[in-house]
Amino acid sequence: MASPALTREFVEQFVLAELVRLGAEESEIGSGAALEDLGLDSLDMTELGTAVKRHLGVEVRPRDFEDVVVVQDALDVVHGRAGL
Question: Domain range holding 39?
Answer without folding.
Answer: 8-82
